[in-house]
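Tip: read the tokens left to right.
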């Protein structure tokens, strides 16, 4: 389940699995991840994203309302750690999440951490080689992907100090760029080789060491607003 699929289940558009998490930390981290995935594709000039881009502010608003409690006069009395109301999405908001869900890699809804360092570096090195070989990709996409490789390598060095969220975010964004590269390349075999020989063992190592919890930046903001 990727972040957009999580949100579709959260808002009741799709059926949610058993023990589906509706706490504020998970919901806001998944919304933050979906926003980053959309922003990445917009920056890569992926077509037909006008509707999702315009719909996302409203999805953020509906997500926040799901954790709100109100006074009788309609004013906000506070936020709750778990979902307290079911908010409906408009048709355009549903379509935006459905379109994004099809484009995002299916990563687990739980945040990722403590991946096997050798597997991570292996993926990053192979992506760097593939970008050097594949001159059919747009230059802006190749440069952006290289920046993400560098970012992930830097965060990997910081990972041992406890920077799980930053490492996971960089790698998730990189996986999204790989998916875009597969769609836009004229050299399919370059990226098929990465998926078949590198991605599977990497994901096996990566997903076997998922973190138990992560507080997204959105949830941090909400808690700051409700202090005092």
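Filled-in amino acids:
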């Amino acid at each position: 389940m990727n972040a957009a699929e999580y949100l579709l289940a959260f808002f009741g558009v799709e059926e949610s699995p058993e023990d589906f998490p509706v706490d504020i930390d998970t919901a806001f981290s998944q919304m933050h991840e979906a926003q980053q995935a959309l922003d990445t594709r917009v920056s890569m000039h992926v077509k037909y994203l006008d509707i999702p881009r315009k719909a996302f502010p409203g999805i953020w608003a509906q997500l926040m309302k799901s954790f709100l409690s109100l006074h009788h006069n309609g004013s906000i009395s506070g936020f709750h750690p778990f979902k307290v109301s079911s908010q409906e999405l408009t048709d355009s908001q549903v379509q935006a999440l459905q379109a994004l869900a099809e484009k995002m890699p299916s990563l687990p809804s739980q945040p990722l951490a403590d991946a096997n360092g050798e597997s991570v570096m292996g993926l990053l090195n192979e992506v760097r080689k593939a970008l050097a070989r594949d001159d059919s990709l747009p230059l802006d996409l190749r440069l952006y992907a290289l920046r993400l490789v560098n970012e992930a390598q830097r965060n990997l060095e910081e990972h041992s100090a406890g920077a799980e969220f930053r490492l996971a975010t960089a790698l998730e964004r990189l996986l999204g760029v790989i998916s875009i590269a597969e769609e836009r390349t004229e050299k399919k075999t370059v990226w098929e080789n990465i998926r078949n020989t590198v991605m599977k063992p990497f994901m096996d190592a990566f997903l076997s060491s998922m973190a138990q919890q992560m507080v997204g930046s959105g949830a941090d903001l909400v808690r700051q607003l409700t202090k005092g």
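The chain has a mean pLDDT of 75. Residues 69 and 75 are 9 Å apart (CA to CA).
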